[in-house]
Amino acid sequence: MKNKKLTEKILLLIKKILFILTILLLIYHVGWTIFIIAFRHHIGDTYIKYVTTMAFRILQFSAMLLVLSAPKILQKWFKMQVPLTLYIVIAFFAFNALVLGDGLDFYGRYPWWDSFLHFHSGIILSFVALWFIHVMMAEKSKYIYMNKYFTCLFLVVFSLGIGAFWELLEYSCDGLFHTNAQQYMASTKGTLVSKKDIPLKGHEALKDTMKDLALDLGGSLIVATYGFIKHDEILEKRNER
Fold it and tell me: Which residues pair with 185 in a beta bridge?
């Protein structure tokens, strides 16, 4: 019991740290945006680029705050209780993607950052799928036996499905806002691009999308393998409760 309470305190502390860092970054960038707009006559035409970059970053930080608020929204609107551990893992992943990846341009600075996140997203999404299974089972007043082969297939398909949906969102975002979410530019890995950036051609333009889906698959297969090995043991423990 003491270990459980200690774990909860640590997880809640991580949540507070993520929240404080995001708020500080948001305030900083809002302040800079106001400063740039106020002194745009002294900065010149480049102020438009600065304001666009700052607005994009502010949007990412705001999205992060929405992620941090998600459990309360799910609890209020859908009566769904998100496990604290799963919530913190997702929040930490979102912080790496939205705040560090887009907001602070880790995608552009570190070419491996996108691959790192996609591999872990496959793992995280698989655990989200397991949580969905648990929710469906809890709704029935008794535990429903699920074949372990079906469970593992569900984890992989769920992860790939969300991964494919995410690629559609990235493609739409790139088309609407002329960003580089799918990293189809040869001259930069960053999300924001300029007219000077050069796009990839032919088969190379598909490389990032297929790599992302392959990493999603790899991460989900790790969790599916774990679930396959531990399925009977976990089911026995739940039936004993």
Answer: 199
